[in-house]
Design a protein that fits this description.
It is a single chain. By secondary structure, the protein is α+β, with helices and mostly antiparallel strands. The protein has helices at 37-42, 79-84, 127-136, and strands at 2-4, 13-15, 32-33, 49-55, 63-70, 96-105, 112-118, 153-156. It has one domain (2-101, 112-137). The protein contains three helices and eight strands, in the order βββαββαββαβ. The longest helix has 10 residues, at 127-136. The chain binds zinc ion (ZN). Zinc ion is lined by residues 106, 108-109, 111, 142, 144-145, 147.
Length: 157
């Protein structure tokens, strides 16, 4: 894991490398939210996701478990290496977006399933960055009825 700052965001994040042990040392293992054992398993199945921890910067003394999502065809294959050697630039992260895990519910057909959704809170001071990122993404529709999930869902498990 490594503490990094990317894309001019007003906070640092703790970046976990691919297949890095999902373990948190003191005091990181306290006040972790929301921790999802489901994602511990899924991270191993998806090369285009990275676990990140972000210290609550809105007045919370807690670390938030989030996921850096890349479209599979846009994941920079040498990203871990660049982070390790401190040679990454903002360009390496331009196709990433900070997401959160949530069970998403379709209001039309009642389908419910595990998803990753864009976590807009982290971009609230960087609206242009958020716009640039969300314009590039295709949000997912309900896999059961095909209608809008009315959420910024980027991935359905
Ligand atoms: Zn539906």
């Amino acid at each position: 894991m490594k503490l990094i700052q990317i894309e001019g965001l007003p906070f640092e994040l703790i970046y976990f490398y691919e297949n890095e042990l999902f373990a948190f040392s003191q005091p990181l293992n306290q006040n972790l939210r929301p921790f999802q054992p489901f994602m511990e398993k899924e991270l191993k199945n998806h090369f285009n996701l990275r676990l990140i921890l972000i210290k609550g910067f809105l007045g919370y003394d807690a670390y938030f478990v989030q996921y850096l999502y890349f479209e599979p065809d846009k994941f920079p294959i040498d990203l871990d290496e660049k982070v390790r050697s401190n040679t990454f630039t903002d360009a390496d992260f331009e196709d990433s977006i900070i997401t959160k895990f949530q069970n998403t519910y379709c209001i039309y057909c009642k389908w419910k399933g595990p998803t990753l959704c864009v976590e807009r809170d982290y971009y609230y001071k960087n609206f242009e960055l958020q716009l640039k990122k969300t314009r590039k993404l295709e949000f997912k529709f309900c896999p059961n009825c095909g209608k809008s999930l009315r959420q910024s869902v980027v991935m359905i498990f």
